[in-house]
TrEMBL record:
This is t-SNARE coiled-coil homology domain-containing protein. The keyword Translocase does not apply. It comes from Salix purpurea. Keywords: Golgi apparatus, Membrane, Protein transport, Transmembrane, Transmembrane helix, Transport. Residues 1-44 form the T-SNARE coiled-coil homology domain.
């Protein structure tokens, strides 16, 4: 019984390790995409006037809120 229990624990640990590895890879890829997006935002903010920048940021916030309330 103890041998079977330790085998089950080993299998569960292996499954969780695989899941964590996949999650880590997904986080790394999303971090790369987010970094590229932030670089583009920095370029836009540096080249545009402050009024256009405010309009862009306000538009994204409103769009985010609309999507949030529609999916909730």
């Amino acid at each position: 019984m103890l041998k079977r229990l330790s085998g089950d624990i080993n299998e569960e640990v292996d499954n969780h390790n695989l899941m964590l590895d996949r999650m880590g890879n997904d986080m790394d890829s999303s971090r790369g995409v987010l970094s590229g997006t932030m670089d583009r935002f920095k370029m836009v903010f540096e080249t545009k006037s402050s009024r256009r920048m405010f309009t862009l940021v306000a538009s994204f916030v409103v769009l985010f809120l609309i999507i949030y309330y529609l999916t909730r």
